Structures are given as structure tokens and as C-alpha cells.
Amino acid sequence: MAGPVNLEDIIKRFSAALPEPVRHMQEDMEKNLRGVMEGGLQKMNLVTREEFDIQSAVLLRTREKLEALEKRLAELEAKQTG
Questions:
Q1: Which of 12, 23, 33, 81 is most buried when burial is the number of CB atoms within 10 A of its CB?
Q2: What is the C-alpha to C-alpha distance for residues 9 and 52, in angstroms, rounded to an integer?
């Protein structure tokens, strides 16, 4: 399975595959293609890698806090029954 491919790589590959007479318009085509692809990705309701990493970190901190609270609760319950 191939690793992640970023949008810039896809745009560059597409541009490189264009016929020579069309390459002089490469910069404009890259801008237009980028806009079309970003719009399509937004419609798919995807998140960026940065957003994903941020939310993963938040989830990890939340999980750690929950585990600490569960441990503390268990200790308090043990003291109360003991």
C-alpha cells in the first residue's frame, strides 16, 4: 500500500503529464486544478492532517485525564469500603 500523497504532488504529476504546447499555461492550470481538487475534498467533509493530529492529541490528553480520574475514584471507593 502506498503512503500518503499530498495535493501538491498530485498537481505536479498532473502538470508534468501535460503535452508540451500546454505547459506554458502550467501555473494557471495548477492554480485552477488546486481549486477544483480542494473544493472536491471539502465536499467530502475531510479534515487536514494538521486538524487530525490536533484532535488526536486532544483525545490522548482526555483519555489520560479520564484514566487518572478512574484511578482516583477507585482509591476513594477502596478507602470508603475499607
A1: 33
A2: 20
Predicted pLDDT of residue 57: 98
Q: Are residues 38 and 52 in the same domain?
A: no
Contacts of 47 (CB under 8 A, 6+ apart): 55
Sign, Cα dihedral of 57, 62, 68, 70: negative
Q: What is the pTM of this model?
A: 0.49
Residues 5 and 28 in one domain: yes
Q: Are 28 and 11 in contact (CB under 8 A)?
A: no
| Range list of H helices, the chain | 7-16, 26-43, 49-81
